[in-house]
Amino acid sequence: MAKILIVEDDKELNQGLAYALRQEQYEVCAAGSLREAREIYEREQVNLVLLDVNLPDGEGFGFCRWMRKRSETPVLFLTARDLEEDMLKGYELGAEDYVTKPFSIQVLLKKIQVVLKRSEGVKSNRYDDGFLKIDFDTAKVEVAGADCPVTPTEFRMLGLFLENAGQLLTYSLLLDRLWDSGGKFVDKHTLAVNVNRLRGKIEDEEHKYISNVYGMGYQWLKK
After folding, report:
1. How far is CA 133 from its chain centroid?
2. Which of 22, 142, 187, 190 could form a disulfide with 133 if both were Cys (CB 3.0 to 4.6 A apart)?
3. 3-state secondary structure 47-112
4. Which DSSP state fits 186?
């Protein structure tokens, strides 16, 4: 299920959009300012952003520019400003579309559907939540903007957790998938040591990714 972030300071419009999107089975996060939007974006794994241009603490263009330094999450601008130069600026920043108010909710829903389908087809083999970045093509990991060296086993572990985000991975499944070659015997203690070492590299007080489900296994918390 796709998660959509609405950044709109008009409370009535924000709530109306949220309701319409939930009716279409989308997950929704809502913000009324750029500050709130940044906090949500860094905390949640968002698939698309509906972004107003005029906001109480700045312009949506700046937020889009900030996002682009972190990911390629699709953006649809929603605004009453219909100047050609503003539209061109939005497109230059990488926005998928520029929708002027007032607009048809049904037309907007169709645009969202098209954008999400297109982004699904070109989705890169990366994870990026603004704090932790993983490029599975180059086997590169970054934490808070700095390179984070990981072992081959830790990298395989990251891939396995992200493929099954939100799901419980049992001890036996992890042991089979991570050490299934060479006939090497590995026990739960060795697994725990590897998981804890990985957590020490990618987590801090504000960013927690891996949870130990006592007596059962581990779970990647962020979706």
Report:
1. 11
2. 142
3. CEEEEECEECCEEHHHHHHHHHCCCCCCEEEEECCCCHHHHHHHHHCCCCEEEECCCCHHHHHHHH
4. -
What three-state secondary structure class fits 218?
strand
Structure tokens at 182: 């060479």
Distances (CA, A) of 211 to 88, 113, 170, 200, 221: 45, 33, 12, 13, 7
Q: Measured in Å, how far apart are the chain's first and last C-alpha atoms?
A: 10
Question: Phi and psi (nearest 5°) for 211?
Answer: -115, 140
Q: Over the stretch 75-130, which tens digit does the pLDDT of each residue have?
A: 999 888 767 777 777 778 778 888 888 889 999 999 999 888 877 654 557 888 88
CA angle 172, 196, 202 (to 5 degrees): 115
Look at residue 208 in the predicted model and tell me its pLDDT: 93
The reported pLDDT for the residue numbered 67 is 86
Among residues 201, 221, 217, the alpha carbon closest in space to that of 209 is found at 221
Look at the pTM and tell me if it is higher than 0.70.
no
Q: Which residue, 43, 47, 17, 42, is CA-closest to 32? A: 17
Amino acid at 20: A
Q: 165-201: per-residue pLDDT in tens?
A: 888 899 988 888 887 544 355 678 889 999 999 999 9
Alpha-carbon distance of 116 to 123, in angstroms, equals 10
- The answer to whether 89 touches 60, Cβ cutoff 8 Å, is no
